[in-house]
Amino acid sequence: MLHNIITHCWTNQIFPSSWKQAFTILIYKKKAKSDPSNFRPITLQPILAKVYSSLIRNRMYCYLLDNDYIETKIQKGFWKSISGTIEHTELLSNIINNARIKQRQVIITLLDLKNAFGEVNHDLIIKALEYHHVPEELKVLIKNYYNGYNISIGTEDYTTDPIAVKKGVLQGDCLSPLLFNMIVNTLIKTIDDEKIKLMGYSYCKSLLPRHWFQFADDSAVVTSTEIDNQLLLNVFTKWCNWSGLMIKVDKCSTFGIKKNGSSSAQFKPYLRISNEMVPPTEINESFEYLGKSFSFAMKTNNIKSKLTDDLASYIETLNRLPLHPKNKLLIISKYVYSKLRWRFSIYQLSDTWVIQNLDSLVKEFVKRWLRLPQSANFTHLYLPSKMLGMKFSLPSDVYKSSQLATRNILKSSKNEEINNLYKLTQTKYVSEDVILSQSQPRKPSDRLVKETVQKICNELHLLQEQNSIISSITQQCTAHSLIAWQRVCESLPENIFVFIRKALIFSLCTNTNLVRWKKVISPSCNICNAVKQTQLHIFNNCSKAISDGRYKWRHDSILKTMCHYLSQLIGFDLFVDINGFANPTELFYNLRPDIVLLSPNEAITIELTCCFETNFAKSRAYKENRYSNLENDFKLEKRKFKKIFVEVSSLGFQPKQIREFKKLISQNKNINISRMLQKMSEVALRATFYIFTQRGNKWSNPELLNFI
Ligand SMILES: [Zn+2]
User: Fold this and answer.
1) How many CB atoms lie within 10 A of CB 354?
2) What are the b/e assignments for 262-293, b being 16+ CB within 10 Å?
3) Which of 38, 130, 142, 413 sits 20 to 30 Å CA-CA off 394?
4) Would you state the pLDDT for residue 465?
5) How far is CA 172 from the centre of its chain?
C-alpha cells in the first residue's frame, strides 16, 4: 500500500500537500519565557513525509556519489559513515603541533554564518540542484516539496495557524542536511583547486597541503601566510554574497603561530572580512572548533580539571539520590560515562592521569555505596553478570575504548590522507594500535573487553582467598542460573544486596575481618566462643547456631518454599518433614527424608541441603552415604523408588546437579520452574542475611520465611 502510494508520487513528481504540514513545538530551555530564543524548536513531520523524503535523499545521495559530484575530504558534516568531527579535529591538532614543534607559520581562521540553515533562500536550493546536475524530474519534485510547505507552532497552551515556510531548509526533514551540504559544496568545489590548495599548510610528504575544513556550516581556513588566509576569506565573502548568507564577523576568530627567534610563538593575525577586523585569539588563550579546544601548547590542563569537576559533580549528585546502589552503578555506566566519552575520544590524557584522578573518585564512591571496606578488592565488579560481576567499568576503561575508537576511525577512514595521519602518529599510540592491528576492523572494542575480562580472571586466581566463592561458583553453576541469581539479588532490598556483594568477596564484618581491620581485638565467635568467627562459621558451622536450630530454620524455610510448588504436582501425595504436612516418618522405619512424593506405583524422596558455597560436592557425598539404604527402610512395597538430592548454598546458588530436580518438576507444565528456583534462592539469601545479623544475639525462633 505504502509502496504503491510512494511509487505513484515518485513517478508523477508529486509531494502530497497533506504531507507538507509540519508541527513545531517549542521546548523551554532557560531564562525569560518572554524571549523566543530561550526555547528550542523541535519540528515533527507526518511519518509518511519522513519516509518519502528519506527515499528522495537516498536516491539523490547515491546519484551525487556515483557521479563524483560531491567532495568528502574538506566537507565532512552529515555524510554517511564518515566520522567527520574526529577526522577534522585530529588533523587540525596535528597541524598545530607540527607548526609549533617545527617552528613553521600557520594561520587558522574560524568562520561563523548567521543562522545558516534558516537563512538559505529557496532559490539557492534550486541553484544548488542545478549546479549538481540533478535530473529535472527530481528538481521538480523537490521544488514541489518546498512550495506550500507549512508549519504550525505550538506552546503549552497555544497553537498558531499554519505559517508558510519561505526561507531556510526544512527543519527536522531528512533531506535538509544533504541539501545544505550541496549548497556548501558549491563553495568547496570552487576552492578545491590545485593552485588554491597550495595556499594551505603543508608539512610532510605523506599529507597534502590543507587549506580548508568544513563541517556542515562550520568552516576553518588554514594557510601558511596571512596573505593567503586573507585571499581565502575574500573568496568566502564573495560566495556568501552570491548565496545570500551572512557572516557574523564578531563571532569569527583567527589564530596564528610563527617562528620567533629559535623557537615558535603564538601571534595575532591581522585579517579583515568586509572591512571588519576578524577578532584574533588572545595569546595563550584557546579557540574551539567542532567541540574541541585548540591552543598554542595544546596542553590539556584545563580539560583535565573540567573533566574532574564534571565527574565529581555528577557523582555527588548521584550520591545524594535515594537510589539502590545497583542503579547508581548503572547510571554511572550508561549516563555519566556518556558525558565524558566525547572528550575521551578527542583529547590524549594518559592512562595514568585517568586512573589516578577519575578512577579513584569513582572507586571511592562505589565502595561507599556498596559499603565495601577500603581494602576490598574491586575487580569482581568488572566481570559480566554470568560471572557474578556487575559489568561495571572504570573511567580508564572508557578512556581506553574511546581512544581505540578514534584510532580505528583514522585507520579505517576512506580518506587516504586520514590513513596517512594514522600512520604518522603511530608512535604516540602504541598500545591502541597493537590491538587494532590484531583484530577485525569492526570489532576492536570487543577485543579490549575480552582482554580485560581475561586479565581480571587471572587476577582472581591470584587473590585466592577473597575470590574463592566466585571462582568455585562459576565453575559449579550454569551461566543461565547465575544470571537468574543476579536478578534475584537485584530485586532484594538495598541492605541485603550490599550484604551479598560483600559476602561474595569475604568482606563482611566477621570478627576475623574486624581484627584484620583493627576494629576489634578478638576474632572469636560471640555465641559459641569458637576461636575464629569466619564467614563459613557464621553461615554454616557455628555449633551454638546448630543447637539453636538456626540453620534448620533456614533449611525448613527453603523446604516450605519448595513444597508450595510441589503441592501442585498432580497424582502425588506430599509428605514433608515440617509442620502442616503429612510427615515422612509414616512411610519409613528409621530414616526420615525431607520430602516424599507418593503415587500408587512410585515413591520419590527429595533431600535438601543448604551448604556453604564451596561445599556442594562434600554435602552431596555425605547425603548419598547417609541415605544409601533408604529403599530398604521404606515401609510400603511394589513401588518404583527414586532418590533426588537438592543443594542450595547459603547465598542461594544452585549447582548444575539441580537438573534432576528440574526434570522431575517439568512433568507438570503448570509449575513455573524458574520462579520456584528463584524463590528458593531468595529465601536462602534472606535467611542467611538474618542469621548473619543475629550472629551476636540470642535466637528467638522466628517463623519460617514465606516468599512464594
Ligand atoms: Zn560460633
Assistant:
1) 22
2) eebebbebebebeeeebebbeeeebbebbebb
3) 413
4) 67
5) 27
Residue 162, Cβ neighbours under 10 Å: how many?
A: 16
- Which residues, other chains included, contact 341 with Cβ-Cβ below 8 Å and sequence gap of 6+? 398, 402
CA of 537 to the centre of ligand 1 (A): 6
**Rounded to the nearest whole angstrom, what is the distance from the C-alpha of residue 366 to the centroid of ligand 1?**
32
Q: How far is the centre of ligand 1, averaged over its atoms, from the C-alpha of 538 (Å)?
A: 6
Residue 494 cell numbers, joined? 538495598
Each residue's pLDDT tens digit, 14-46: 788 888 888 888 888 888 878 877 888 888 888
| Alpha carbon of 531 to ligand 1 centroid (Å) | 9
**DSSP SS3 for 328:** helix
Angle 395-412/337-346 helices, nearest 10 degrees?
A: 50
Task: For residue 193, give the 3-state DSSP assignment.
Answer: coil
Looking at residue 629, its amino acid is N
Q: Name the residue with higher pLDDT: 277 or 464.
A: 277
CA 499 to ligand 1 center in whole angstroms: 19
CA of 528 to the centre of ligand 1 (A): 4
272/253 Cα distance (integer angstroms): 11
Which of 31-35, 104-108, 535-539 shows the lowest mean pLDDT across its residues? Answer: 31-35
Cα of 526 vs centre of ligand 1, distance in Å, is 7
Taking the C-alpha atoms of residue 614 and residue 618, their distance in angstroms, rounded to an integer, is: 9
Interatomic CA distance for residues 385 and 158, integer angstroms: 50
Q: Is the pLDDT reported for residue 627 higher than 80?
A: yes
Distance 118 CA to ligand 1 centre (A): 77
The percent of residues in the chain predicted with pLDDT above 90, rounded, is: 41
Query: How much distance in Å is there from the Cα of 530 to the middle of ligand 1?
Result: 5
- Residue among 176, 153, 173 nearest 163 (CA): 153
Span from the CA of 622 to the centroid of ligand 1 (angstroms): 22
Ligand 1: centre distance to CA 470 (Å): 24
Distance 411 CA to ligand 1 centre (A): 62
Residue 699 CA to ligand 1 center (angstroms) comes to: 13
User: What is the distance in A from the centroid of ligand 1 to the CA of 539?
Assistant: 10
- Residue 524 Cα to ligand 1 midpoint, Å, equals 8
* 691 C-alpha to ligand 1 centroid (Å): 12
Q: Indicate the residue type of 700.
A: S
Asked if pLDDT for residue 634 goes beyond 90, the answer is: no
Cα 521 to ligand 1 centroid, rounded to whole Å: 17
Q: Using a cut of 0.70, tell me whether the model's pTM lies above it.
A: yes
Residue 258, helix vs strand vs coil: strand
CA distance 272 to 667: 86
The per-residue pLDDT for range 216-257, each reduced to its tens digit, is 888 899 999 999 999 999 999 999 998 888 899 999 999 999
pLDDT digits (tens, 9 = 90+) for 363-377: 999 999 998 888 777
The rounded Å distance from CA 687 to ligand 1 centre is 17
pLDDT at 79: 67
Q: How far is the CA of 516 from the centre of ligand 1 (A)?
A: 19
Mean pLDDT lowest for which of 12-21, 400-409, 482-491, 644-653?
12-21
Q: Nearest-CA neighbor of 409 among 110, 83, 170?
A: 83
Average pLDDT over every residue of 260-280:
91
pLDDT tier at 410, thresholds 50, 70, 90:
confident
Q: Ligand 1 centroid vs 533 CA: distance in angstroms?
A: 6
